[in-house]
Amino acid sequence: MSCLKKERKPMVPLKTLDIIFRRRYVPNTQHYFTNRKHAVEQDTKHKKQMKPFRVPKSEKLLSYIKYSDRKEKVTTRERLAQPLHLKDNLRVAATRDISQRLFVEEPPDDVRAVVEIHPEFYTVIEGRPLRCFDDIKVYLNNIRAYAMDRQQIGYRRDLILKIEKSDVEEAEHYEKIVEKLKQHIKNFQTFLTEDYKKACYKVARAEKVYNTLLAKDSEFLGYVSSLTILNNILFKLDAIRSILKTYRSYLMFVAPLSWRQQNDETLKGRIMSIQFEAGEFATDNDLVESLDIEKTVEMAKIEFKNPLPACLFFKRPEQMMYLFRSMELQSREYLMELAKTDGPNRMLRDRFKQLKLAQAQESDYFQYYIDIINFEISRESFNEEHLRNKFYRILNESFYDSIASPTTLKLKICIEYVYEQVFGKCEEGHHSLQDPLKILEVMYEDYNLRLDALDFQIVVQAQKDFFAQDLKMMQNAYNAQRELRAFREMTNAINKAFWPPAKYVRPPIKKFLDKKSRYQAMMAEKKKTEILSGERLKPKKYKLSMEEREGLLLFTEWCEGMNPAPFLKEYNEFTKPVFEWKPQKSRQFHPMEH
After folding, report:
1. Distance CA 590, CA 594 (A)
2. pTM passes above 0.70
3. Its domain of life (predicted)?
4. What residues does each domain of the chain span?
């Protein structure tokens, strides 16, 4: 009984219960204090509603009794028809599945709260003092003990319910398996009986066929034996025929050749010199063909149609004996002659072997001398080749460099030219350079002595005159080159005047340019903008005259596109005064006069 005036609604603070019962990590602890429905899984299958048993109406009672009697008779007949090991007890059959029929689920537990364990539970939770003067720890221990007992009771009851339900399910499954097994055994017995009858019928038919086959086999063996006997007879006849043919061919072969040319079909119309023919020997293929009865019979038919002529030279055995006797005597004569000539023949063979060995030895000796001579010839040819190469090497290198090289030829031409300029042309020429060189050397020493005797001022004046003369020649060459360049430029200008007008080329669109071309165009535009804005100094443009341009190109390292200022300064300071200098007139210097 609750001590409160108004009974409160059952409330279960889950977190507080977990803290009190120290079961935080055990799931579903608090359910055992409220309800046990969760313990047994609910069967989701809808159970088939069973109609309750009703007593039939009075007008249908008689038909129901007849039906039940008939069904009971049918059931009894089926049970009696079963074999002994399948017959069941009536009591067992009556009480079968009684557990399933009598199974009634217990009503689920009502919702219970911990407050029903002790009426002052909420007082403790709310922190108010208890009416009984118990310690709170003792009170909580008692509550925990009560709760644990109730929890264990609920858990065990749930476990018992699960075990009972699993037992019932296993019993149902077992009954189904037993029913199927009985049906399989029944079917197996039925099929086994049918198969046995079929097998007996097939065995009877097989025995009948086997007896018929034995009779046919014996008949076939009789035919085969008779056929074998006939084949053996034919083989014997064929062997006799072949032996007679062989003997006839032998008698034909040993007969005289003149008679054979008249009577033998193989030598009719042949030349007298042909005495022997190459015979054909029987092979394995011929033997196999002779075993073929059909071919043998065909060949015999052909021979019977066209038989060989029955003409023989030797008609009596005494004639053949005489022939063998004469052959025996002839062979004896041959043996006697062999005995006489055997010794000389053997000596002749030995001598032939000795001569063969001597010839081989002499040929070896000759081959040795031939090899020595060939070695000497090869050595001499090698020396000859070496000397020839050495000669040509000296001729093409040392001799050519010292006598016939272009440098030597130039030197000779130069010396001849100097000699002709000094002494006049030599009609006979010089066979060696030594003579003109000696003459020029003597003359050079004479000129040196004369120059040493001259005044220094006269020598300097002569050098200036020579330099002025060379400078005048250079100036004339320079003026001629200028004229040629002017003429070339005029020709190019005339040619350009006759060219067709220039074609219009559309400026390239930037978006179609590649990366490099786009960058170059951007830099050129940037440079142009800087020049226009004054940020970048405009490069100074020099206006060069044609004369200055030619002078820079000829006498300096200036090129088109470079700044000509430093080169122009150098040209005006050093090169231009030389061309403007005029030499003084002086007496011409003639070396031959001094």
Report:
1. 7
2. no
3. Eukaryota
4. 14-36+60-216, 454-493+541-594, 510-539
